[in-house]
Design a protein that fits this description.
This protein is an alpha/beta fold. It has a single domain, classed as Alpha-Beta Barrel (TIM Barrel). An eight-stranded parallel β-barrel has the order 1-2-3-4-5-6-7-10. Helix 5 links the parallel strand 4 and strand 5. The longest helix is centred in the middle third of the chain and has 21 residues. The chain is globular and about 50 Å long. The mean pLDDT is about 95. The structure holds magnesium ion (MG). The site of magnesium ion has 6 residues, from loops.
Length: about 280
């Protein structure tokens, strides 16, 4: 795959359709790298070969493969706690099998890392869910290490210091962070720029996403995602902080909005904003 520039602009996008058409659509933003999300219900048999061929033909680099799972729902904080990631007990073992399959898919397309939301990690280290998820993180890290991959946890659902403690306890060198500044705001977790400073040594990849804080008068509500530069993150200070900590990897724009035309406009606007800041 091609060498990337420092702080090269990329896009987070999802697999599902024809790989070549999907890549051509992403390239219309003027980018040549990105992060590929794998929906929980996508059939992975034969998928890596088709993606590898399309990536070579389109000269496109995937820096991270994201695993999502069937049954996840981001409606509000209690729903996220009940359905997202590796914390929910009922789906945990199926999701472990799926994550290993996504790691194998990532190896098949030559991606250097995988990532996922593991869900809300309890702070109490004796909590059975904490112990089970910590052990699962170790097993997935070890499988990923066999492919020379990192496993990145998406930030946002726990404060930086809780995540740091969890990292120490897991004790795996290939466990890293995909830093998402907007999630810290959407979940009301803490100031993302401060958190980035604390988590810096573990950050392998980042999202460029923006959002507003949750409404104070609605219990369990999430904040609202906004087009890049229009939310509470402060994108110029975010990019400045990334430079300050010595981050040189891609800047992957993430924009989740149901209206595809709005998404296209917002991603294009984000590309232009980041061109001026990087
Ligand atoms: Mg994100």
């Amino acid at each position: 795959m091609q060498a990337l520039e420092n702080l090269e602009i990329g896009v987070m996008f999802w697999a599902g359709g024809d790989p070549r058409e999907t890549l051509r659509g992403v390239k219309e933003f003027g980018v040549r790298c990105g992060q590929l999300g794998i929906p929980g219900d996508m059939d992975l048999s034969g998928a890596a070969a088709a993606w590898k061929e399309a990536l070579e033909e389109e000269q496109f680099t995937i820096v991270t493969v994201f695993a999502a799972y069937q049954g996840e729902d981001y409606a509000d904080i209690p729903t996220v706690q009940r359905t997202v990631g590796w914390i929910p007990n009922a789906t945990r073992s199926d999701r472990e099998v799926r994550t290993l399959a996504v790691s194998d898919f990532a190896a098949g397309i030559g991606a250097p890392g995988i990532a996922t939301h593991i869900g809300f990690v309890p702070e109490d280290k004796t909590d059975p869910d904490y112990v089970a998820v910590r052990d699962m993180v170790r097993r997935v890290c070890d499988h990923a290490a066999g492919h020379g991959q990192t496993l990145a946890l998406e930030t946002g659902q726990e404060p930086a210091n809780v995540l740091l403690e969890f990292f120490k306890d897991v004790g795996r060198a290939n466990l890293r962070i995909n830093f998402d500044p907007a999630n810290m705001i959407l979940y009301g977790t803490g100031d993302p720029i401060e958190a980035l400073g604390v988590l810096a040594p573990h950050v392998v990849s980042v999202h460029c996403k923006d959002g507003d804080w949750p409404p104070k008068d609605v219990a369990g509500a999430l904040g609202t995602e906004q087009p890049l530069g229009k939310g509470a993150v402060g994108i110029p200070r975010y990019i400045a902080k990334l430079k300050e900590i010595g981050y040189t990897g891609p800047l992957s724009i993430e924009r989740e909005v149901p209206d595809q035309e709005q998404r296209r406009r917002d991603v294009q606007g984000a590309v232009e904003l980041l061109r001026g800041l990087r």
